[in-house]
Each structure stands twice: as C-alpha cells, then as structure tokens.
Amino acid sequence: MKVLVTGGAGYIGSITVEQLIKGGEEVVVFDNLYQGHRDAVHPDAAFVQGDLKDRAAIDAALAAHKPDAIMHFASYTLVGESMQHPFMYLGDNITNGLNLLQSAHEHGVKKFILSSTANLFDKPERMPIDENERIVPGSPYGESKNILERMLYWLDVTQGMRYACLRYFNACGASEERGEDHTPETHIIPLILQVALGQRADFAIFGDDYPTPDGTCVRDYVHVVDLAQAHILALRALDDGSRTYNLGSGRGFSVKEVIDMAREVTGRPIPTRVVARRPGDPAVLVASSDKIRRELGWAPKYPDLRTIMEMAWNWHLSNPTGYAK
Ligand code: UDP
C-alpha cells in the first residue's frame, strides 16, 4: 500500500513512517518543516515539502504519488498555545484538514487516518476513558480535532471515505533513530531530560494542588512506537469499516512520578520548582484502550514508564541537541 503521511517529519509522524517502511509499505511524506525535521524523514520515504494551506500543492502531491491512504499528523498540537492563539487552531487546523479532505476526495483516496487527542475529554465521567465517554473538548486544540472527526464521519456517510480517528493520550519515548525534538519544547519528558542533560536549570511543575494523590496532574504515557503500530493496524482494518480508538497504556502517572522515574533512569538530580497551573490542563486523563486491543489485537510492546524513559534518554544522549536545524 502507498501511504501519504502529512507531518511525517514530526515526532509521531516520523516514527510512524519508520514503522510503515519496516512493515513493507511505500511512504510519501508531506510536511512544511514548521516543526518537523528533514533529518527525521526516513531515507526510503519520498519527501514533498509543502503546506496544507496550499490546495494546489496537495493536489499536485496526490496526482504525482497516487496514494491509497492518507495519515494526517500535520497540525498545531499544543493545548496551552491554543488557549492563547485560538485561530491557529479553529482556523488553520480545521481549514488545512478540510483542504486535505477535499483533495483526497477529488483524487479518490478513500482511506484516512486522523491523529486525534485525549483533549476531547475535558470532563470525563469515568476513568479510564473509553470511546463512549462524552466529548467535551478542553481547548480550541481539542475542538479542532473534534471538528475533523465529525467531518470524517460525514464523508464516510456520504462518500464512503473509510477513516480511523486515533485519540492519543501522552505520546512519549523514542525509537533507536528518531525521537522528540520540538522548538520550543513544551512536553514533559523531553523537558525533564534536558534538565538531566544540564541544558536547563530546572523543571517547572504546573501546579501541585490538583485533586490527585500527590497534587500533580496524572497522565497516561504511551510509547510512540506502540502508537505507530496502532496506525498500521487501523489502516489494515479500514476495509472492514471506519473506527475510532482511544490510545493509551491504561495506567496513569503523576508529574512527580514521571520526574522520579527520570531521576532513577538518568541517575541525575533534576531540580524542580512548582509554578501556576497551565490553563486547559485537566487533573487526570487515563485511557481505556480495550477496544483496539479487542478488535485489532493491539498489544503495546513498551507499556512501562521505565522502558519509555530509558528509550527517550538513550535518544537524548545520542542527540543532545536534537535533529540538525
Ligand atoms: N507539565 C509540567 N511542566 C511542564 C510541561 C508539562 O508540569 O513544563 C505537565 C502538564 O501540566 C501535564 C503533563 O506534564 O500534566 C504532560 O504535559 P505535556 O505538555 O507533556 O502533554 P499534554 O498533556 O499537554 O498533552
């Protein structure tokens, strides 16, 4: 199968490309390199530098490469940023996704995998959160993904587009060759590891007065290679119909527990300080991934936080300044 991967130079996208190629698929990456890195793109993938704002560029890529399926990772992805700059999310994330869907429709691409998010669940009534939980987006970011999920629903009903919405909880870890490198970095594990490397003085804990056992937020950390595998399983299952899955490990760790694990794995002290809560952060988010385990046999290979941290640390030690800029 030939798969066009938007955002294939980014963190989750590049590792999914790597896993697709290992699995024998042909891949075309479409990325504007806004956050992505050319060096993160697997050498066996074709690369198109293009922007989803540009319908003609998408049309040209689809006409030239004729993919069977699209995986859409390219997006602004930060809850906090979306609270400050809502139109990047309510505007660009949605119109770029719409451009891609219209192009896919016009070029007869009938399989589509959307990167979605746990930020759909701001007021969960049950924990862990399964696919029946009420959708309450926690931010313009979550809302942008909700709207794209709804578009896919209607394209399936009206046009026979087969889609999978994959709602990631906290993607983390690294493969041997690819890891997490954002500018600016805002994610917990790379930030903590930058402190361990001596590149930052300390790690700022966003609030320790949440209603959780140690007062810090609890999240479900899922290994990026396991997420990549979920995409591949979902892609292969699309002939049997569209589907939506929550993807996590089913276990929650507090911010303080993540810091303690990083101290153990790195053997470095990692100073911290407590600062104000970050707007848009719910206290606890833990996924139930029973549905994808049951329906597709997804079985995370790296379910424990120690392994995730070790693999992330190995990548940061080998690439202390990330990818070449
Ligand atoms: N976090 C923190 N300090 C930071 C960055 C993150 O305390 O500098 C916390 C954040 O409040 C959340 C967890 O770490 O509870 C994971 O945040 P991240 O931004 O990595 O992922 P998100 O949950 O936003 O997808």
Keywords:
globular, binds uridine-5'-diphosphate, 18% strand, three-stranded mixed β-sheet, UDP-galactose 4-epimerase, domain 1, 325 residues, 14 strands, alpha/beta
Short overview:
With 325 residues, the chain is of the alpha/beta class.
Write the layout of secondary structure elements.
Layout: E1 2-6, H1 11-22, E2 26-31, E3 46-49, H2 55-65, E4 69-72, H3 79-84, H4 86-106, E5 111-117, H5 140-159, E6 162-168, E7 170-172, H6 188-196, E8 203-206, E9 218-219, E10 221-223, H7 224-237, E11 243-247, E12 253-254, H8 255-266, E13 272-275, E14 284-285, H9 290-296, H10 305-318
Helix pairs in contact: 1-7, 2-4, 4-5, 6-8, 6-10, 8-10
Class from helix and strand fractions: alpha/beta
Overall domain count: 2
How far is the N terminus from the C terminus?
32 Å
Tell the overall outline: globular
Q: Can you identify the CATH class of the largest domain? A: Alpha Beta
What's the arrangement of strands in the largest beta sheet? 3-2-1-4-5-6-11
Low-confidence stretches: none
Mean pLDDT: 97
What would the CATH topology of the largest domain be? Rossmann fold
Query: How many beta-strand elements?
Result: 14
CA-atom Rg in angstroms: 19 Å
Percentage of residues assigned to helices: 25-40%
Ligand roster? uridine-5'-diphosphate
CATH superfamily of the largest domain: NAD(P)-binding Rossmann-like Domain
Main pleated sheet: 7 strands, parallel
